[in-house]
Amino acid sequence: MSYEVEHSTTPANTTGTSNTPRPPPRRPDLSSFFATLKEITPNPTETRARPYAVPVPGDISAAYRSLAEALNVMRHETGEHGFPVHDGRDEGLGNAATEDATGGAGLLSNMISILLREAEEPPREVEGVKEEFCDALDRVPTSSLKPTQACPICSNPFLDDPYPLVVRLPCHTSHLFDLECIRPWLRLRGTCPLDRTDFGKKERERERERVERLMKKGNGEGDEEDEEWDGMYG
């Protein structure tokens, strides 16, 4: 008996051929990214000693680089190699807004370039959406998916996953993504990768209006306005 057979080191298929389909590319581990994101994202349920303090730019840069590295792992799985280098030009997402929602390695490269650019000159605060936004996204039932439909980010056909969790972004009915792929991008940047609709900006505007109303109420301005209206109709 040979060493290989005795120690079970020979491949199970000795004919050299296999009908087993290749498993879909694995998704990268994003635990480090979400841990970093948690440190720089304000949590309304927590009492902060400095409620108006902003995250340190270096921490925000770390979040952008962490997600860029994770997407680069995914990009290698789709067959494109080499880490894109930001050359200082603001190229946005190319022509993604005018193309169909196929995505793939080209979209990933654009997304990574944007993250690297933001890492070099990070914003003062995280511009992404809250977790509640991701939780409220429309879920797409498996029965409505076609075998040819794939996630624009990871390029995996949705139906290759035995338990797909596909979501639709509010900007367009055809903008479907694996939730695992789109969630980190939305949490950090808050935009649709295909047409750059800024959901994060809309959330920030609503939050700013809410804070302004609370400040006016705390200063008694709201009560004065009510009294003025009452006087007009007295």
UniProtKB/TrEMBL annotation:
<keyword id="KW-0479">Metal-binding</keyword>
<dbReference type="InterPro" id="IPR001841">
    <property type="entry name" value="Znf_RING"/>
</dbReference>
<feature type="compositionally biased region" description="Low complexity">
    <location>
        <begin position="8"/>
        <end position="20"/>
    </location>
</feature>
<feature type="compositionally biased region" description="Acidic residues">
    <location>
        <begin position="221"/>
        <end position="234"/>
    </location>
</feature>
<keyword id="KW-0862">Zinc</keyword>
<feature type="compositionally biased region" description="Basic and acidic residues">
    <location>
        <begin position="200"/>
        <end position="220"/>
    </location>
</feature>
<protein>
    <recommendedName>
        <fullName>RING-type domain-containing protein</fullName>
    </recommendedName>
</protein>
<feature type="region of interest" description="Disordered">
    <location>
        <begin position="200"/>
        <end position="234"/>
    </location>
</feature>
<dbReference type="Pfam" id="PF13639">
    <property type="entry name" value="zf-RING_2"/>
</dbReference>
<keyword id="KW-0863">Zinc-finger</keyword>
<dbReference type="GO" id="GO:0008270">
    <property type="term" value="F:zinc ion binding"/>
</dbReference>
<dbReference type="InterPro" id="IPR013083">
    <property type="entry name" value="Znf_RING/FYVE/PHD"/>
</dbReference>
<feature type="domain" description="RING-type">
    <location>
        <begin position="151"/>
        <end position="196"/>
    </location>
</feature>
<feature type="region of interest" description="Disordered">
    <location>
        <begin position="1"/>
        <end position="29"/>
    </location>
</feature>
